[in-house]
């Protein structure tokens, strides 16, 4: 109820009639989702069964959040060329906590990477290895990639596009590779609740993780809205936004989502979004019949006076370690990325 009151009182809301229709559509879709979840939770196919109560609770939160954010959500815009517009790209990353860089990875490497990912996912499915699921959520895979072969070529190609200079500008010369892998959301993946990856404390010496998400899809396939693109809320990499985002039952949480413009990462194959780990974001629901695949390359600087990163990212609860093969931890300085070899 509180949600509907907020929606009605919002000055940017469409007329009430239209809003009622939207709410009805939203409720119908919610019940379709619920049905789908219940069906999947008893299904015997090779998908891991969903733990219904937890998934349902997450679905309720994320559906309400989507409803709140929809009026001010737009497809991502303002791309900056990674080589020619590095200054603007860096300034945008620092101020907004995210930036859009088109064409960082060549098409043939996207295709080769995708073939490798398809093979690895098929292996995971065959072995029914649940450790490959992102946060335990079936339909979302998180594969830590070895820094060799096609992955190494893709990483070095992307970083050479100007991405490395922007990441060094944001995180500093001592930045180290701290996360490397691929996330894939498969058809039916639910929308995630809005979250940051690390919590912002306001400490002046705080070192965010800068993550580059690079889209890699089958030829000519871009991330469309139905594939559940990453949704980001610019300029929320700060204490005020993190304090407000304290649970959907709180007015500050509702107000923040209803009043902050958000962008949907409807990017093309080979494009990249860099974001600060403190920027509020979520993966969308995948309504399509295609797998959405993103390679991630993340870097972070050690704290002042330290030479390496801690075993777990600060302010992330163990065992949520850095998402990378553990033997790579503290081994790869960003500035020497051309010498990397796993
Ligand atoms: O799926 C996505 O686009 C984002 C995933 C994400 O935000 C996360 O797992 O923390």
From TrEMBL:
InterPro entries cross-referenced by the UniProt entry: Fungal_Metabolite_Diox, Phytyl_CoA_dOase-like
Pfam families, per database record: PhyH
Top-level taxon in the UniProt lineage: Eukaryota
Matching PANTHER family: PHYTANOYL-COA DIOXYGENASE FAMILY PROTEIN (AFU_ORTHOLOGUE AFUA_2G03330)
UniProt name for this protein: Phytanoyl-CoA dioxygenase family protein
Organism: Cymbomonas tetramitiformis
């Amino acid at each position: 109820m509180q949600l509907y009151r907020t929606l009605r009182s919002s000055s940017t809301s469409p007329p009430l009639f239209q809003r009622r229709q939207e709410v009805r559509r939203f409720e119908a879709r919610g019940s379709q989702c619920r049905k789908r979840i219940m069906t999947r939770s008893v299904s015997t196919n090779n998908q891991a069964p969903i733990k219904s109560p937890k998934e349902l609770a997450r679905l309720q939160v994320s559906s309400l959040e989507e409803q709140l954010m929809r009026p001010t959500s737009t497809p991502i815009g303002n791309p900056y060329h990674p080589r020619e517009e590095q200054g603007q790209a860096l300034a945008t990353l620092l101020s907004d906590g995210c930036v859009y860089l088109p064409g960082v990875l060549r098409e043939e490497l996207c295709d080769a990477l995708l073939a490798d990912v398809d093979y690895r996912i098929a292996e995971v499915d065959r072995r029914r290895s649940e450790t490959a699921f992102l946060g335990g959520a079936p339909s979302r895979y998180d594969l830590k990639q070895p820094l060799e072969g096609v992955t190494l070529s893709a990483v070095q190609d992307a970083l050479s596009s100007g991405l490395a200079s922007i990441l060094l500008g944001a995180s500093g010369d001592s930045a180290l590779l701290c996360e490397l892998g691929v996330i894939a959301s498969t058809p039916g993946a639910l929308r995630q609740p809005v979250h940051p990856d690390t919590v912002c404390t306001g400490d002046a010496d705080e070192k965010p993780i800068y993550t580059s998400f690079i889209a890699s899809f089958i030829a000519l396939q871009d991330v469309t809205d139905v594939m559940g693109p990453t949704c980001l809320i610019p300029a929320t990499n700060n204490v005020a936004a993190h304090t407000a985002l304290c649970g959907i039952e709180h007015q500050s949480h509702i107000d923040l989502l209803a009043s902050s413009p958000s962008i949907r990462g409807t990017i093309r194959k080979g494009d990249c979004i860099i974001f600060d780990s403190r920027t509020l974001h979520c993966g969308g629901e995948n309504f399509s019949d295609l797998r959405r695949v993103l390679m991630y390359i993340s870097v972070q600087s050690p704290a002042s006076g330290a030479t390496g990163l801690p075993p777990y990212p600060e302010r992330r609860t163990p065992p949520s370690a850095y998402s990378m093969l553990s033997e790579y931890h503290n081994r790869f300085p960003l500035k020497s990325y051309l010498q990397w070899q796993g």
